[in-house]
Amino acid sequence: MVAASAIPSLPALPRWLADSLDVGGIGWGPPMPPKRRGIAAETRALADAYAAPMASPDPEITRVELARLRLRTIVREEGQDEAKARFRELCADLADVPPNVLADACDRYVRTPGRRFFPTAGELRQITDEIMATRVMRAYRLRLAAEAAAARERHMDIEEQAKAHPLTDEAVEKIYAEAGLRRHDAPAAREVHVAKAARVGQRQIGEAAGAILAKGRRNWLGDPSQQQE
User: Fold this and answer.
1) 8-27 pLDDT, tens digit each
2) Can you give the residue ranges of every domain in the chain?
């Protein structure tokens, strides 16, 4: 007999994903991940956990799970040889189903009102297909969420670099020179710069400088189309 612990279990979903992972259609996008290091790696591990069992059917666990299901349901009257042959065929029909999916399907079957009799392969396959579709979707969305978390961690890196190296007037001049951006010659341009610094604060200016360094020719002091040569 195969122990129940041999069936791989799925980890619980984190709170920031649990309420949104199964809702929405084709245009689904991940929620904002927590601002914490390691979220991306944790979410990738979750995606792997949901995807890995899909490719690992086990004939022995299939036989054990279906035998347990037989004990939990009402079986039609039939001879011993016929019962053995019918059970072998059922195991063969469901041999490609991953163990934890089959175990989940069996539990759902016996807990559904009105389902008292030992099921056919088609009845169980309907449930396993639904479970598989949900898990495939979850694995895909978890990978999208991991990418979003990785992007946020990269943004955290930019923030930390900006805090470690505050933007100075000399740095502004260097950024403009290296990026080949057009520069303000009018005295009013300096006043615009000071007003923006006061309004958005040093942290956001540091973010803007990091964005220029990372992405190239973005003019964070204003709309380039409004500048004068």
Assistant:
1) 567 788 888 888 887 877 77
2) 4-151, 165-226
